[in-house]
Write a structure and sequence with these properties.
Blueprint lengths: L14 E8 L4 E6 L6 E6 L5 H11 L13 E6 L5 E5 L6 E2 L9 H20 L2 E2 L8 E4 L2 E4 L6 E2 L19 H4 L4 H4 L6 H17 L16 H5 L14 H10 L10 H11 L6 H7 L1
Antiparallel strand pairs: 1-2, 2-3, 3-5, 4-5, 6-8, 7-10, 8-9
Length: 290
Amino acid sequence: MALTPPISRTPTGYVLAEEIESGLYGTRWLASKPADDGSVVDLIALDDDRFLITLCTNAMCMKGITNSQYTSNVLEAGWLDNGDYYQVSDLPHSASALSKARLPLLEGEALMVSLDMVRALKHLHKREYLHAAICPEAVYSVDGRFKLGEFWWAHTLSGKTLDGDLFDHYPRRVPETALNFFAPEVLLGFPPSRESDLFSLGALMFYLLTGETPRAVHSDTNAFVDLERIAKQEVRSISDFGSFSDLTAAVLEKMLDPDADKRSNIFRFEDMIAHALGEETPEQVLNESE
């Protein structure tokens, strides 16, 4: 039987249909309102936790920032009467995080995910924001396409957290699984950048193709303690995991270059991946992704 949340935990105008799972930081509910196709609401009980308060404040700054088919846009966010944080995202009830996908994906499927994520990043970067924590838990499959969401750790394009206090917690309080997708310079203490978002996307692509992260993570590695050790591990070659197209290998080599200045640019990656998928990029898609 579906649980019914207390009325004090219901954002105005929404009906919470059922609790579906734990979100990254709280409880996730299916929700709806009149003339709405359905949304997902995250509810977080802060309990005077200073970290959660600054994390939610950071996420709240992303309300209304994105409006793309390639992003899980934050429609509404704020504080309820009882002090809990709520966040409404335009994810349909059928959305499923890639962390639940059966891996490895076929090369064409992984390229399709990557193309949608490149377009999500183009949209985000044009608005002068960084995602700064791309990982399988932040990407959702929606009706055969893919959306980038979970903007809890979003930064400005200059590498600053939207809530200044969150800077003290980055990257050490990011979920441990996400740290394995981080660019080496970020793990070593440098602020995130366009190039570090691209590294994380390359790491995600590698993971979808192989079921493993680009850097071999030893069983005794504590990601929160061993950030420098992880950062200095050599990225493995995709060719060690099977036979992939020259284009896929070239894209990954560029995205995962340890030197951020050599990671090419997002426009080039979009062209390469779209070409690999045989896509003649329609004008409206280019406009939408920008």
